[in-house]
Design goal:
Elements: H1 5-22, E1 27-32, E2 37-42, H2 49-63, H3 69-72, H4 79-87, E3 98-103, E4 106-114, H5 118-130
Helix pairs in contact: 1-5
């Protein structure tokens, strides 16, 4: 199974609400298990590059079968990771602001957030993930 449009929207909206609560300005990408974009929100004032970062983080978590972004970061300096990223057009990005999205125990997608501190990006992603729990 993969994330539905309604679930992707719900995750993005919950993440957006957390960003507003924290007073941050971010971009939020939600992808399905194949890494395809399902939902995206860019808050007013969020830098355009934040799309690429939030998408890359979410894409990477989805492609790594639901590992947390921070867990994947340890691979970023390995040649195979850089090679795989190059083969995917540079889409692989390992950072703390991305989490898997699950329906029960089943991986259905991932959420990536960029534009705030790593801690705030992660808190925002956690709010999005919690919306599916």
């Amino acid at each position: 199974m993969t994330i539905t449009a309604a679930e992707a929207t719900r995750a993005a909206e919950a993440a957006l609400a957390k960003s507003v609560e924290l007073g941050t300005t971010v971009s939020i990408s939600v992808v399905d298990t194949g890494g395809e974009l399902s939902s995206f929100v860019r808050q007013d004032g969020s830098a355009p590059v934040n799309f690429d970062i939030s998408f890359g983080q979410a894409y990477t978590v989805a492609k790594f079968g639901g590992l947390r972004g921070g867990s994947i970061a340890k691979f970023a300096d390995y040649n195979w990771f850089r090679g795989a990223s190059a083969m995917r057009g540079g889409c692989l990005l390992a950072a703390e602001g991305a989490l898997p999205l699950r329906r029960g125990e089943e991986l259905v997608g991932a959420i990536g957030v960029s534009g705030a501190t790593e801690a705030d990006d992660l808190a925002i992603a956690e709010a999005g993930a919690a919306a599916l729990a």
